[in-house]
């Protein structure tokens, strides 16, 4: 009887050890999985906000019912059977009924989600100067990693934009700032700037407001000083003894915008003649 009990106890202990080992092995295999597997839920073509490259965003449902969204290149999605060429030769998503299920995506095909790790200042500069040919987030961050501060990069971008240049002009400006050699840039009077400050003053016409702070604050819009609100004292033309004419003063701060439209001397009638 005792032998039977000892056998049962030893058997239970052995089973517990085996089960723990199996669980540890399974967890290890999941952590080291070389692919992402799940049922495809959605497939979307997107455009990377920094590089402008077309990517494919795929949402999968794993075995636990959890949703996971990953990104791959168009070529990878085509190889996975998620995209095909249309009559115009463009890659487009195939019908959902044709998606492989389950879908297995090798980890080497996965692209990092750059939007989650991008530097906020780099993002702001890339968005603000997106009209400069060749300039994007990667270009800006490469310059920053080469030792240029974001303030200097912003100044160089302002100059590039003012000069209607491209990414090559930006690179030349940064190189000049670093070396102190400005011979690649000739001013309108035929002279070569002696330093960075002189170059900026000549190209930006002394506008010191074009800096990184303006970009980060979003205050780059010129204030409207057209004086269109100067018509606010039209009540001075009423035939009520000029009441509310307010003598035309201030004209709602219209910056001399018609100076209150004859609101002065509110005792005048509509023809501007003084009443008897």
Report on this model:
This protein has 276 residues and is of the alpha+beta class. The protein folds into three domains: 32-114; 120-217, no CATH class; 228-260, no CATH class. 34% of the residues lie in helices and 14% in strands. It has eight helices and six strands; from the N terminus they run αβββαβββαααααα. It has a four-stranded antiparallel β-sheet. Strands 4-5 form a two-stranded antiparallel ribbon. α5 (150-162) packs across α6. The longest helix has 30 residues, at 2-31.
Summary of the model, kept short:
With 276 residues, the chain is of the alpha+beta class. Helix content is 34%, strand content 14%. The strands form two sheets. The chain has a four-stranded antiparallel beta sheet. It has a two-stranded antiparallel sheet with strand order 4-5.
How many H/I helices? 8
Number of DSSP-assigned strands: 6
Largest sheet: 4 strands, antiparallel
Shape summary: elongated
* Beta-strand percent range: 5-15%
Instruction: Give me the secondary-structure category.
Output: alpha+beta
Number of domains: 3
Name the average pLDDT. Answer: 75
List low-pLDDT spans: 20-32, 221-276
Radius of gyration: 35 Å
- Strand numbers in spatial order across the main sheet: 3-2-1-6
Determine the N-to-C terminus distance: 133 Å
Helix content: 25-40%
Order of helices and strands, N to C? HEEEHEEEHHHHHH
């Amino acid at each position: 009887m005792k032998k039977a009990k000892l056998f049962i106890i030893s058997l239970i202990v052995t089973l517990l050890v085996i089960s723990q080992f199996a669980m540890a092995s399974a967890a290890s295999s999941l952590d080291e999985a070389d692919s992402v597997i799940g049922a495809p839920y959605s497939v979307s073509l997107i455009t990377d906000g920094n590089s402008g490259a077309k990517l494919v965003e795929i949402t999968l449902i794993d075995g636990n019912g959890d949703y996971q969204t990953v990104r791959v290149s168009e070529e990878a999605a085509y190889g996975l059977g998620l995209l095909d060429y249309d009559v115009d030769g463009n890659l487009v998503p195939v019908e959902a009924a044709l998606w492989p299920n389950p879908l297995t995506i090798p980890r080497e095909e996965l692209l990092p989600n750059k939007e989650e790790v991008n530097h906020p200042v780099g993002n702001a500069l890339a968005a603000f100067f997106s009209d400069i040919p060749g300039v994007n987030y990667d270009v800006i961050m490469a310059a920053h990693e080469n030792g240029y501060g974001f303030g200097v990069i912003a100044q160089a971008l302002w100059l590039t934009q003012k000069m209607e240049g491209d990414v090559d002009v930006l690179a030349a400006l940064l190189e000049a700032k670093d070396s102190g050699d400005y011979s690649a840039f000739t001013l309108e009077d035929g002279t070569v700037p002696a330093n960075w400050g002189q170059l900026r003053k000549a190209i930006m016409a002394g506008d010191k407001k074009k800096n990184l702070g303006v970009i980060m604050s979003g205050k780059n819009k010129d204030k409207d000083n057209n004086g269109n609100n100067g018509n606010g004292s039209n009540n001075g033309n009423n035939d009520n003894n000029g009441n509310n004419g307010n003598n035309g003063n201030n004209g709602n701060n219209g910056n001399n915008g018609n100076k209150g439209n004859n609101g002065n001397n509110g005792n005048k009638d509509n023809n501007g003649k003084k009443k008897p």
